[in-house]
Amino acid sequence: MSDIRHSLLRRDALSAAKEVLYHLDIYFSSQLQSTAVPIVDKGTIELVEEFIFHVSKDRNIQLKRMSSMQELQLLEIMCSYFQEQSKDAVRQLIFSALFSPQGGKADDSRMAMMGKLVSMAVAVCRVPILECAASWLQRTHALYCVRLAKVLVDDYCSLVPGSIQTLRQIYTASPRFCCQFITAVTALYDLSSEELIPSSGLLEMVVTWITDDPRLSLITFLNMPISANMPLGSLGITPLVGLVRWCAKSPLSYKRNSKAPVANGHTGKLARESVEEGVDLDPLYSKLHLSVLQILLMLQAHLTEKNLFGRLELLQFEQMVQLVEELGRLVEELNPLNATREIELSLNRLAQVLQVAMASGALLCTREDLRPICSRLPHNNLLQLVMSGPVQQPPHSAFQPGFYPHIHTPPLGYPPRPSTPAAAAHPAHPSFIPGMSFPYRPMR
Amino acid sequence: MSAQGDCEFLVKKARELVSEDPWAAKAWLITARTLYPSDFNIQYEMYTIERNAERTASAGRLLYDMFVNFPDQPVVWREISVITAALRSDCQDKHAQFLRGKDADMLLRLGCHPPSAPCLCFLTRVSVSRLCVSGLFETLPGRVQCEMLLKATEQCFNTVEKAEMLLLLLRRFPESVVQHGVSLGETLLEAESIEDLDTPVNCFRKLFVCDVLPLIINTSDMRLPPSLMYKYMHKAAEFYIAYVTRGPSADGQLPGSQEAVGLKSPSAHRGSQRYVIDGLTEKSSLVSDPWERLLDILAVVGALCEWQGDKASRSYPEILQRMKKLCRYLPSLEGETLSRCRSQVVTCAALVLFRSAYLYVSTVQPSLFQAHCSPGTGPWILVEDLSSVYSEVDLEKSAKHAHKKCKLADSREKTVSSDDEEGLGKGRNRHIVLSKADVPGWAETLDSFRTARESWDLLHSHEALESEFSKICSSWKTDTWLWLRIFLTDMIIYQGHYRKALTSLHQMAAFQPLQQGPMVPQGSLEHQRALIQLASCHYALGEYRLACEKLLEVVCTLTPQAHDPSRTPEELTRSTRTKFRKGSDLRLLPCTTKAVLPFCLQLMLACFKLRAFMDNRDDLALGHVIVLLQHDWPLGEALFLKAIDKICQQGSFQYENFFNYVTNIDMLEEFAYLRTTEGGRVQLELLPNQGMLIKNPSPSLGLVSQEFSTLLLPGAQSAERHHTVTRGITKGVKEDFRLAMERQVARCGENLLSVLHRFCINERVILVQSLP
């Protein structure tokens, strides 16, 4: 390893970087032939950091930095390398060796380089890189993922008007990347401040993606091995949490942010945008919300199919608790009298999503669990109904209460009927249906 | 709050939102459904939204969900019945298009307001275009469609509806034919027999024959026993034949369309073609190319029953030829093969017979099948050809022959099948004369007639065939088919079995009024058709008196037209010159006054001719002949001269009606000449009273004759009276004759047909009595 290092030290920055890529290629290719699970060893990481990201553990050595031109050349080389490398595993390994955050000084330049590479791949539609980036987004801590999302949003949604059309294409190029991108974007834009409200262009793009193909948001989940454990702190397997947040919070967040500028004396970003572009964002969120519910219903069949029903919480209870708290804060910030409509809309959406998520097994909690956390919220009929659960109906109906046929969803084959084996696998699992064990209802 | 209260609240919320924010409305309903999965109204509301937005795919899936989860909801069945009705209905139907347009309009107007409950109910019932619901159905997977149709079928109580539903199923899913095809067919046949309908053209049979049977026989994995195949084949044949030969539809009876009949406009004509089988729609009542369909079924059944011979042979005449060949081997067969072969021959030959007979009768008597015939298309009457009546060739021979014939026929009356076969010996290959210009497609008509006869002969060539054929006939009640009776009668006439033909004609007269009924105005010439044929047959049998009786009955109903100027002498000679073959030809006579009156006159002439020229003197007959010979003058010139010869030989001639009915100038001249010395001073007694006074014949006869003549000739009356008064017994006879001659010459321009018609009517009694 040190031999390589020595020889590299004599080269100029660009050719050294090229040499490292070459070395990695040979190294991993041979490793893949001998072992099933190759490891990226420390030496290699150091080599990459030193000659590609120009951060050396050895402080004495003054590294030659690349010029912008050289950096562009290197990106081009990487781009074509990933394009031309036919072995998926080698590609993934090298991408990982290059761009997995190591927690060191090099991570900043690593992220910067990766942002540029992925942005470039989006521009010239390099599918292999997008696929690698999708896997990267799955493995890497959310903080880094969000940074990548930010780079792409800045490059394509803010910098050059009209360039969003290029970003839109990633849906066809790499649905997997698209799905992870949505997850990252919704994690980034959590509507907690004016800056963290997605631009109307971005929102419109995401909504179009999802309404056109609700399955898109489940791609990562569907391709994931059942046994796979998610690395700590990584993004969710689906963008559902983020999307739910968008839908539930948007009426209140927009209301608050449209009010704020009046106090400051100049119009805020949201109001400005809406006026400038003449886009009514309400229908977009309404559509999105419907799609989320439909996705949740679809999810039920997939969970059943993968035998994960009741075992995998795609919407985590804690996340819901957090969302309810955020909503509560927003309600408090707004004068309830001036925002009756918005509060009603937000809480209706919250209630709907809680109900459908519980029914479809995406959210594993009981109605009793919900009651304390929602108690801070203003009264809402539907939320009340969801918390108390349905009135127990006489058991004459032969309808299987635990199973809901897919409705308003594009075909996934035909909905399994209660008589099909898939449903028969869970003939009597009322415990999956939160609240079913709760026989009485308090007064509303 | 009750569960119902919750559901109502949720549905109400969704309804409020549906127009301004349909996504939110759906979100509400999705939520509601997860809360109350067994509530029907929630799902129905979801379905309604999707269907009204014409999102056929999701509406279809929701409908299926409801279909599975709420099989007891009437609303679901109403929806499904709307769909199946749309599937069954004729989409090209103008009425449907109109409705669809109106619905769309209605939907627009209602859509503006938040829909209230009754409003929604209305939308459900009417607004959904058939296109949408059929489209909705199409989006469902085949398995589901199949299941839905089967379930929907179970809901039907009406046999026809049920059958139509099952048909939808069978057509869409050919694999289901094996399971349901035969049982559906049997259900229909059973229903038909329970209803005890009087015609095979009924809704059950139509569905069975036209819709179910083709599915059954075209499904290759069905192995039906031959007996069943024969049964079905015969059911189909009976239906198609009855369909083709059904009478014209009765809608001509409606007051509105009666005017249309008179108009003869294309629309009126089309109207008459409309035919609706009771219990079916107009569209599904339509049966196209019945004979071709029958042939298709025959081909398949033949293949399945392992019939002999070339399966590719595709036309009826070809089939007959094939059967003729097959028949030759029949005697050498036995057992299974024989019975199979026999069934094949009988089935095939019977179909050829019925088709050809139908084609023949549809030309000869089109009013049986069509309400409004274009002028010039029939009816036609098959009669003895008398164009050789003016020739004197066969006088002697046939005079004797006629007696023999008569005796023969009488003696054979009782032996049924082969009567007068050798006696008349002209049963085969007789020539049929017709005016080719008048009969469009005459060659085909004659071909059909021949093919039908040959089929009949084939079916009666073996006892085994005959008995099997008669089984078919009795089960189809062919003896009640007027059209077939008409053909059979003509066939018998053609074969020369006149005695049998007379029986057949009398039978026909028995049910004619029943079937011909309303379409043909009473007293029309068509009713005389049988009479004319009766007369023709009697004549052929030598029963001249009966022949004349029938003829005169016919003539009484005719009103002679003004003399037809178009009938030129050239035409006359041309039409008669053709035959000097034999006296055994037949003629297809158009059933019009213009043709019938001359034929009657010819036939009467033929009846009297033999008597007039017999060795015994019969002045009355001779006189009638002379009167009748005026028709088609000068064709009868030779015969007239023969009569003059006979008068000269007799030296006297008495015919009191002479001056009433002889206006032919040539004849008058000849008679004037006879009285002269050069002419031989023949004693002519041609004036009524003269004859009465001189000869004193039976007074009653003379009186009748005189009374008629005075009635008849009001102009001449006073003059004759005058003569009667002033005249002595023999004195002044010459003077009277001269005056009468002069007067006759003045009458030369009179319409000869009117004169002869008067002759027939006025002298009816004498005419009949003067024949043996």
TrEMBL record, chain A:
Pfam families: INTS15
Source species, domain of life: Eukaryota
Descriptive protein name: Integrator complex subunit 15
Organism the protein comes from: Scleropages formosus
Gene: INTS15
TrEMBL record, chain B:
Location in or out of the cell: Nucleus
Superkingdom as given in the UniProt entry: Eukaryota
Keywords noted in UniProt: Nucleus
Keyword Protein biosynthesis (UniProt): no
Keyword Nucleus: yes
Pfam families referenced in this protein's UniProt entry, alphabetically: INT10
Signal sequence annotation: none
GO BP, sorted A to Z: snRNA processing
GO cellular component: integrator complex
Stored InterPro entries: Int_cplx_su10
Broad class of where this protein is predominantly found: nucleus
Subunit structure: Component of the Integrator complex, composed of core subunits INTS1, INTS2, INTS3, INTS4, INTS5, INTS6, INTS7, INTS8, INTS9/RC74, INTS10, INTS11/CPSF3L, INTS12, INTS13, INTS14 and INTS15. The core complex associates with protein phosphatase 2A subunits PPP2CA and PPP2R1A, to form the Integrator-PP2A (INTAC) complex. INTS10 is part of the tail subcomplex, composed of INTS10, INTS13, INTS14 and INTS15.
Record-stated family: Belongs to the Integrator subunit 10 family.
Protein name per the record: Integrator complex subunit 10
Organism field: Scleropages formosus (Asian bonytongue)
Source species taxonomy: Eukaryota, Metazoa, Chordata, Craniata, Vertebrata
Gene for this chain: INTS10
